[in-house]
Specification:
Elements (H helix, E strand, L loop, with lengths): L10 H13 L14 E4 L11 E6 L2 E6 L2 H11 L10 H5 L6 E10 L17 E3 L4 H10 L1 H7 L8 E6 L2 E11 L3 E8 L8 H15 L3 E6 L2 H10 L2 E10 L2
């Protein structure tokens, strides 16, 4: 029987919640209950950019951090009683709070140790590896453009970077950034001209296998539908969502 991604007893849900509680930078932080999100004042929170409100829903409950007590009171009053999925719906939140800017929502996927699926692809070649910061990776980031490069997070990886190359050119690359709680935050990028060929799945599979071999929890955060499809093909289960909002 498939595991229920809203079940707090699910090991993936439990580990993901522990991660985001630590990222909140609030020692007392804990997830709320359905219809009653937990809201904490945490100006040092990593759930959102500095001075923003961060909402993370994992399973059927949410954790929210706010930069000030006044912001926390506003959020608590406005969002209490909402269903968990509504807390990361930009239109719903903007209808209840004076939102000046929004980031997300992003879907959070996690992979169990035995959950990685095999990949078949007509790739351009075998997967190799490069050190982070290699000139060929910098060229890939520049080719992809600022928006796609930033979305990928590839510039922040701390693992080896797994690549498919055509001569000196990197067609696709994947690695992960080591996060707290033994979490591997996956980062994947494909050159614009090489997309649609399964290369992202190939390099991401190798990066995910590397993370699992190190005993880490692979995490995939995605906004674009194409990124979500890659994660699902590899066996990641969507267990949460994240939204950041800036109040005036």
């Amino acid at each position: 029987m498939p595991t229920d991604p809203t079940d707090p007893a699910d090991p993936l849900v439990s580990r993901a919640r522990a991660l985001w509680q630590e990222l909140s930078a609030e020692p007392a932080a804990a997830f709320g209950t359905p219809g009653r999100p937990a809201v904490f004042v945490a100006p040092g929170s990593s759930l959102a950019p500095p001075s923003w409100v961060g909402v993370v829903a994992v399973g059927d409950a949410a954790l929210i951090t706010a930069p000030t007590g006044r912001a926390a009171d506003s959020v608590r009053s406005a969002l209490n009683g909402l269903a968990t999925d509504e807390l990361t719906a930009p239109a719903t939140v903007a209808g209840l709070l004076p939102v000046a800017d929004t980031l997300g929502p992003a879907v959070l996927g996690y992979l169990a140790p035995d959950g990685l699926r095999p990949v078949t692809t007509d790739a351009a070649g075998p997967v190799g590896s490069l050190a982070a910061g290699h000139p060929a990776l910098r060229a890939l980031l520049a080719e992809a453009g600022q928006a796609d490069a930033g979305e990928s997070g590839l510039a922040d990886v701390t693992s080896p970077v797994f690549v498919v190359r055509k001569g000196p050119e990197v067609l696709a690359a994947a690695g992960y950034e080591r996060w707290p709680r033994d979490t591997a935050h996956l980062c994947v990028l494909t050159a614009p001209a090489a997309r649609g060929r399964g290369l992202a799945r190939q390099v991401a599979h190798t990066a995910t296998a590397h993370a699992l071999a190190a005993g880490l929890l692979p995490q995939w955060r995605a906004r674009p539908p194409a990124s979500r499809r890659v994660a699902q093909a590899l066996g990641y289960r969507e267990a949460g969502r994240q939204l950041s909002v800036r109040l005036p």
